[in-house]
Amino acid sequence: MRLTYTSDVWWKNAVVYCLDVETFKDGNDDGVGDFRGLTQQIDYLAGLGVTCLWLMPFFPTPNRDDGYDITDFYTIDPRLGTLGDFVEFMRTAHDRGLRVIADLVVNHTSDQHPWFKEARSGKDSPRRDWYVWSDTPEPDDPKQIVFPDKEDSIWEYDEGSGQYYLHSFYRHQPDLNVGNPEVRDEITRILGFWMELGLSGFRVDAVPFLIENVNPKLAEPHEFLADLRAFMTRRMGGAILLGEVNVPYEELVKFFGDGLGDQITMCFDFIGMQKAWLSMARNDATPLADALRERPAPPKDCQWAVFLRNHDELTLDKLTDEERQEVFDAFGPSEDMQIFGRGLRRRLPTMLGGDLRRIKMAYSLLFSLPGTPVIFYGEEIGMGENLDEEGRMAVRVPMQWTSDGGFSRAEPVREIPEGSFAPDRVNAADQKRDTHSLLRWFQLLIERYRECPELAWGECTVLDAGHPAVLAHRCDADGATVVVAHNLCDTARDVELTLTGLEGYQLTDLLVDGAVEVPEKGTVRLPLDPHGTRWLRASPPKIAPEDASVKSH
Ligand code: GLC
User: Fold this and answer.
1) Where in the sequence is the signal peptide annotated (predicted)?
2) Which stretch of 57-71, 219-233, 300-314, 350-364 has the lowest confidence by average pLDDT?
3) Which residues have C-beta within 8 Å of that of residue 436, sequence separation ≥ 6?
4) ∠ CA 448-308-170 to the nearest 5 degrees?
5) Any ligand 1 atom below 6 A from CB of 130
6) pLDDT of 24 higher than 70
7) Of all protein residues, whose CA lies closest to atom 12 belonging to ligand 1?
8) Ligand 1: which residue has its CA nearest to atom 4?
9) What is the mean pLDDT of the chain?
């Protein structure tokens, strides 16, 4: 049985929306977003068309890394609500057909977690081995330091117990020792707990760190990921792991489970994302086209998660120094926009200078790339960043619901951006009423993406567009085809595409009105506006375009 429409493998063409409960909507007027506020906005999310929410960490935390420093994995940060509020939220999300996944941050805990307090109480503590200790750590390799502005080592000396502990991230985030079977069991229990409360899976934070920096070294580090996935699948067939795995493609395939597909269900395509930015900086599609050609096909039932921005800096760590500089020059020239020497702490619309045509093109490109698109809250209305906030917090601004903000009736915990991206210029309420808005564009893209499973499932072929500024590709599945073209530059282009096997077919525009026939010799001429985009459904003569898409069986 072909599975396209059954949703058994729902993640293959999901639309994932990442949000932080804290900055989305305040439901109790204390200036902090919460589950009650989020629950009120579920209809907005369902109306947008997204199919899966990814919640950033919502657990108790001293908040020294915006919640990625957890002190209790089994409950809700009291500032965000109660477990009761969480369950009501889950019920409402499911009622509107939305799945929910959450960040699983188990590479480390907060140093305030009772486990760590116990572990550091002395070398004989029964929890000592839950973390990674050393008398004589290896000298640091600068490449291992994730936050070079704040840390110069991944080891911290613990005065009280006289040994060093490992922290891949900040020193207040000691790494858990997943080499210890008790820790692995506890992590599994955490997954089980939240799945029982309705989660459909997890976005796994910092996956390579999780399985690599362990003590003693895991004999088979990847076995742990396979064990976790097997556990989840036993409990809930459709549960997924969405992995933050920023490593080169050749290493990355191991995280899917080397052809078996039994580990991480979806991996973010960090390389494709960085090449997309390089392409936009150069107005030249070649780097992205090359990445698409080089990107390994995911194992059956696995998928690539595609994105342009997320809650962290726009990392450009996989580009060469010169390439990174090109992206900096184009999209983040001033020093306060840059971070860690490798990324930009900005949101997409500001980087593209607020140029709506270009912004629309960028998201059209995102939704047409083979994989499952993941968007960060506020992208759908074109929110900007607030550079006055510290570090990566710049992009984690309160959601802009109305012209006066609408996030909270109280003074919000985080400042609302001012200037041309302030709520009076950029907000959801106004854009709902405006048929030309970015929000409406997102709704259309999402609707079309869902109607064209070829894009997510199909075999993708990058076409020769004859012009470097244009990325053209086709996606074929089960005899159905979608052809897509994007013009990265701001002058109109006519491209000629050779569409083998589609001679005499009709190509119907899916985003605007229009159609063109592929001549018998198979080469079609497609005009593209400045930053223009075309999504075209191919239909054989005498078959209506809407009947020419992939069918369920
Ligand atoms: C991941 C998260 C980031 C966090 C870090 C430590 O990289 O995306 O936001 O700071 O892990 O948990």
Assistant:
1) none
2) 219-233
3) none
4) 140
5) no
6) yes
7) 68
8) 68
9) 95
20 CA from centroid of ligand 1 (Å): 13
Q: Name the residue type at position 95.
A: D
269 three-state secondary structure: coil
Strands 515-517 and 506-509: antiparallel
For ligand 1, is residue 377 a contact (CB within 6 Å)? Answer: no
Residue 49: pLDDT band (50, 70, 90) is very high
Q: Of all residues in the chain, what percent are helix, strand and coil, respectively (each to 5)?
A: 35, 20, 50
Task: Determine if ligand 1 sits within 6 Å of the CB of residue 68.
Answer: yes
Let me know: does 307 contact 270? Beta carbons within 8 Å: no
Measured between alpha carbons, how far is 337 from 355 in angstroms, rounded to an integer? 19
C-alpha closest to that of 133 among 108, 112, 161: 161
Domain ranges of the chain: 114-166, 458-539
| DSSP structure string for 286-349 | HHHHHHHHHSPPPPTT-EEEE-S--SS-EE-TTS-HHHHHHHHHHH--SGGGEETTTEE---HH
Q: Find the 311 Cα to ligand 1 centroid distance in Å.
A: 9
Q: Which two tokens stand for residue 333?
A: 């020239």
**Stated length of the chain:** 553
Three-state secondary structure call for residue 397:
coil
Q: How many C-beta atoms lie closer than 10 Å to residue 181's C-beta?
A: 8
Whether the per-residue pLDDT at 1 is higher than 70: the answer is no
| Residue 356 C-alpha from the chain's centroid | 22
Q: In what order do the strands lie in the sheet with 338-339?
A: 314-315, 343-344, 338-339
Strand 506-509 and strand 493-498: the pairing is unpaired
Whether the CB of 105 sits within 6 Å of ligand 1: yes
Ligand 1 mean position to 206 CA, how many Å? 7
The token pair that represents 352 in the structure block = 């593209």
Q: Which residue has the tokens 């396209």?
A: 4
Q: Which residue has the tokens 């008398």?
A: 135
Tokens of 143: 């490449």
Give yes or no on whether 114-166 and 458-539 have one common fold.
no
CATH no., domain 114-166 = 3.90.400.10
Tokens in use for 373? 């698109």
Per the residue annotation, which of 205, 313, 323, 385 is the catalytic one? 205
Distance between alpha carbon 443 and the CA centroid of its chain, in Å? 18
Structure tokens at 94: 């499911």
Catalytic: which of 244, 269, 312, 323?
A: 244
What's the pTM value of the predicted model, to 2 decimals? 0.97
Centre of ligand 1 to C-alpha 68, Å, is 6
Cα-to-chain-centroid distance, residue 159: 39
The interaxial angle of helices 221-235 and 181-196, nearest 10 deg, is: 30
**What is the DSSP annotation of 152-189?**
S-SEEEETTTTEEEE-SS-TTSPBB-TTSHHHHHHHHH
312 lines ligand 1 (CB under 6 A): yes
DSSP string, 67-123: TSS-S-TTS--GGG--HHHHHHHHHHHHHTT-EEEEEE--SB--TTSHHHHHHTT-T
Say which CATH class 458-539 falls into. mainly beta
pLDDT digits (tens, 9 = 90+) for 501-548: 999 999 999 999 899 999 999 999 999 999 999 999 999 988 888 888
